[in-house]
Amino acid sequence: MRDPRIQTSASVLGGLLVRAVAAATVLLSLTTGAASAYETDKVALVIIDGLRYSEGLGDPDHTYVPEMWALAQQGTIIEPFINDGYTYTSRAIPAIWCGAWTDVIPFSDPDCGGSSNNYTQLPTIFEYYRKHLSRPDEDCIYFLKDVGCPWKASFEPDYGPDFWPLYHSAGTTDLDVWSQTEPLLEQYTPSFFLVYLASVDHEGHSGNWEDYLDSISTADSIVGMLWDYLQAHPFYAGTTTMIVTNDHGRHDYDFSGHGDSCDGCRTIQFLAVGPDIQTGLVSTVPRTIPDIVPTIGELLGFPTEDSTGTAMIEIIKTGSGDLKIFSDDFESGDTSAWLQEQIIEEQRRWVEFNE
Ligand SMILES: [Zn+2]
Ligand SMILES: [Zn+2]
Asked: What are phi and psi of 111, to 5 degrees?
C-alpha cells in the first residue's frame, strides 16, 4: 500500500485529470440514466451511539479505537464533523436516516400490537435506496439489538412501508448484534445495511468510566471485524464503502450525559473507507449529520430529494476540496472556533423558526 502521507504534485495533476474524466462520466451517466459512476455499489453504515470524540478518533493517541485509526489511514475522516441539531438519540438517529432534522411522529404501531412507537415525517435512506434502485427488503437490512419495537421509517406517499428496511432486532449487547450480523450478511448479501451499536451510550450513562471505555474498545473491534469480513467476502471486497459515525457525543464536562450544545455533545466522528474514498485524508471542510445521506446517494446513484444536506464530494477520489493529508505530527481535535460559529448560527435558526 502506498504511504498515504505522500502526495506528489505529479499525482495531484494525475488526480485532476482523473477528476475531469470522472466528471464527464458523471454527466454521461446522468444523461443515460446509469446508476453510478463509482466503483462502490454497496454501502455499510455503522452508528456508534454516544461515542464522545475525545475518546474516539479525536484522541491523538487513539487509545480505544486502534481499528478505526488504522482504517482512517486507508480512508477519510472529517474534522469538524458536527451534530448540528439535537444531541440526543431519538432525534439524531432519524436525522442520520433522513439526511435532515426530520420530525418524528408518535403512532400506535400495528407491527408491535399497537404499542406506541415513532415514525419519521421525511423519507429515509432505506426508502430512497429501495425505491430508486428497485431493491427488495432483504437487500436493505437494519441490524440492531432487541429494542422491542424499532423506530419506523416514513409513511410518505411516494415512499413509505413498501420501501422500509428489513429490521433485524435481536440480542442485548453490541457483540450480540455483530454475531447476528455476520450470518445474515452471508445469507442475504445486502448491498445497503446499517449496523447500530448502542452499548457505548448505555455504558456512558452508567457513569462507570472503565465500562464506558471497554464498550468503545468493543465497538471499535466490531468495526474492524466488519471491515475484515467485507474485504474477505467476494461479493463485498473492493466494491463496498463503509461509513462509521455517531448520533451525538457526550458533555465535555460530564461523560455520563449529553443533550446540550457543548463541544463534547456536538463533535462527532465521520470515518469513511472504500474504493472511491480518498486515502489517508483528514478533510477540513466542515460537515454535519444531514450530509451523510446525500453522500451515500451520490455513491450508489440515487436521489435523496428531501435531505437538507449535500454530498461530500471532497472525500471522494473524483471530487475536489480542501484536502489535508495525514502527517506525522497530526493531532485531531481542535474545532472549537468553527464550532462556536455553528452553534451561534444554529441558535439563530432555532429562534427564527420558533418565532
Ligand atoms: Zn444517551
Ligand atoms: Zn453537552
From this structure: -70, -15
Question: What DSSP designation does 220 have?
Answer: H
CA distances from 46 to 61, 244, 318 (A): 22, 5, 24
- Tens of pLDDT along 54-108? 999 999 999 999 999 999 999 999 999 999 999 999 999 999 999 999 999 999 9
Measure 261 CA to ligand 2 centroid, in angstroms.
6
Listed by start position, the domains of the chain span 7-231+269-354
264 CA distance to ligand 2 middle (Å): 6
Q: What is the pLDDT of residue 43?
A: 98
Amino acid at site 351: V
Q: How far is CA 158 from CA 115, 128, 162, in A?
A: 26, 10, 10
Ligand closest to the CA atom of residue 265: 2
C-alpha of residue 250 to centroid of ligand 1, in Å:
8
- Å from CA of 243 to ligand 2 middle: 24
* Rounded CA Rg of the chain: 19
**Which regions of 190-329 does DSSP assign to beta strands (E)?**
192-197, 240-245, 267-268, 270-273, 281-283, 287-288
For 7-231+269-354, give the CATH class. Answer: alpha beta
Q: From the CB of residue 333, how many other CB atoms can be counted at a distance below 10 Å?
A: 15
Angle at which helices 209-232 and 199-206 cross, to 10°: 170
Neighbours of ion ligand 2 (CB under 5 A): 251, 260, 262, 265
> 160: closest CA among 101, 195, 215, 120?
120
| Cβ atoms 45, 193 nearer than 8 A | yes
Q: How far is the CA of 258 from the centre of ligand 1 (A)?
A: 6
CA of 92 to the centre of ligand 1 (A): 11
Q: What is the DSSP string of 7-76?
A: --HHHHHHHHHHHHHHHHHHHHHHHHT-S-SSS--EEEEEEETT--GGGTTTSTT-TT-HHHHHHHHHSE
The stretch 244-271 carries a mean pLDDT of 97
- Ligand 2 centroid vs 266 CA: distance in angstroms? 7
- Report CA(210)–ligand 2 centroid distance (Å): 20
